[in-house]
Amino acid sequence: MILPDKFRGTLTSGDFIEVATAALTPRHSVIARQISDGGEGLLEAVGGRSRPLVVRGPLGKDVESRYHLLRNGDAVVEMALASGLALIGGATKNDPIAASTYGTGQLIRAAIEDGATHIVVGCGGSATTDGGWGALVALGPKIDLPGLKLTALVDVETPFLDAPADFAPQKGATPLEVRFLERRQLAIAGQLLDRFGRSPLGLPKTGAAGGLAGMLYCAGGDLELGFDYLSELLGLEELILEADLVLTGEGCLDNESFNGKVVGRIIERCTYLSRRIVVVVGMIASDFDRNHLSEGVELVSLAERYGEDRSIIHTKECLRDAIGAVSLD
């Protein structure tokens, strides 16, 4: 069973699956699934029918985006495809004060107008720290429709007011801008309380995607770990039970990998279900606490085995060789 996360900047989870499948077949029977913690790659993981839409990007420029309609009636929005940092070329090209979730709101509104009554929003990979205000403006009165259910998929426990300090520097914010965003976030929390009678303050997970999750919560939404939603949707536990070995991996294994992220959650599931697991990663963070790994977890670092430069430049080649060297008997 192949269940990878992405190698950020070098491989998508689909690339990992392609390389691993080629390395393992035809000697072994392989089942592969793309998986997500609610961030990038969510739509590929859930499948369904794609509905393309041009929306306003995080800095105001139109971008081609989409949402998916699933057989179970859910509409799934990947906010990174409308308000994501990758859309503008990374943190150095971002304006963390101006970056807005308006385009994400346009996707949610379109899904509602398409007849969906349960909107699932993946809150990850954002360029924004606007407390979800842009999305709320784009939604307008649509967010008050009777019978509408909202679910925010998150992979962090960060509270609403901590989002600027925890995440804005990764999105290009200076210390002075972080302090401004903190004050603005507090003001937005007050406006959300006035608007919905519900406050995001002090609650875990509400700071995901710069506070978008908090806005969705105030509007009556649920907050759920993205991996758990995908696990149930894909029947992941049953698939793992059918496997003799589970292969997963990501670009960098660090302590945050065990805070609701894909690889950490898969390791936990395999340990609980007594299934052999091999984890192939690009590198291991220098401060990684190996106590996160239960006994029996097999860990392979491409940087340690092939050198950091080669593992980054020739990631596919190194990955193929590393997987081919794993004993599957």
UniProtKB/TrEMBL annotation:
Q: Which SUPFAM superfamilies match?
A: Glycerate kinase I
Report whether Kinase shows up as a keyword of the record: yes
Against PANTHER family, the record matches this protein to: GLYCERATE KINASE (PTHR21599:SF0)
Cite the EC number. 2.7.1.165
The name this protein carries in UniProt is: Glycerate 2-kinase
Q: Which Pfam families match?
A: Gly_kinase
Which UniProt keywords are present, listed alphabetically?
Answer: Kinase, Transferase
Give, as one word, the top-level EC class.
transferase
Q: Which GO terms describe its biological process?
A: organic acid phosphorylation
Gene designation: garK
Note the superkingdom of the native organism. Answer: Bacteria
Question: Which species is listed as the source?
Answer: Acidithrix ferrooxidans
Q: Which family does it belong to?
A: Belongs to the glycerate kinase type-1 family.
What terms describe the molecular function in GO for this protein?
A: glycerate 2-kinase activity; glycerate kinase activity
